[in-house]
Write a structure and sequence with these properties.
By secondary structure, the chain is α+β, with helices and mostly antiparallel strands. It is built from seven helices and four strands.
């Protein structure tokens, strides 16, 4: 007879047993690692469709916390702000390669620095996987193309 505690100990986390579409809204939102990279202006080459990241951030992104300053109203305040939804996973190619949504869609594991693994929301900043204090506000930039960067 197996121990009743064995099932608790062996239980896998939700992101390993559910598809993105099966997740609750709370589970879905918890996947965001807080890197801030999705709030950066990205440029696409019209001919090759290659995507380039910049270090130019939306004016609502807090440079220290990498969180939106007005998350609940962001869609009203920023016309082209996107709401990530499970129905759009096939279009997640624009998300950074380190993004949990993209990683899980591609069948990959969450990295050790993700707070759902490490238990600490600061790990991403300590490991330099966020844009914390490495970005400029879009209101301070004249030519975005001069700000192309290659994030890890």
């Amino acid at each position: 007879m197996s121990s009743p505690n064995k099932n608790i100990k062996d239980k896998k986390p939700f992101w390993q047993i559910k598809t993105l579409a099966e997740m609750s809204q709370e589970e879905w939102e918890s996947l965001c690692d807080g890197c801030g990279k999705c709030c950066l202006i990205k440029l696409e080459d019209a001919d090759t469709k290659e995507l380039f990241y910049t270090d130019v951030a939306c004016h609502l992104l807090d440079h220290d916390t990498c969180q939106c300053k007005d998350y609940s109203n962001r869609k009203k305040l920023v016309e082209d702000c996107l709401q990530l939804e499970a129905d759009d996973v096939e279009d997640f190619k624009w998300l950074p390669q380190s993004c949990a949504y993209r990683l899980l869609y591609e069948g990959k594991e969450l990295p050790d620095w993700h707070y759902l693994i490490s238990g600490d929301r600061q790990t991403i900043h300590q490991q330099k996987m966020s844009v914390q204090n490495r970005i400029v506000n879009e209101t301070e930039v004249m030519e975005v193309a001069e700000h192309i960067v290659y994030w890890v």
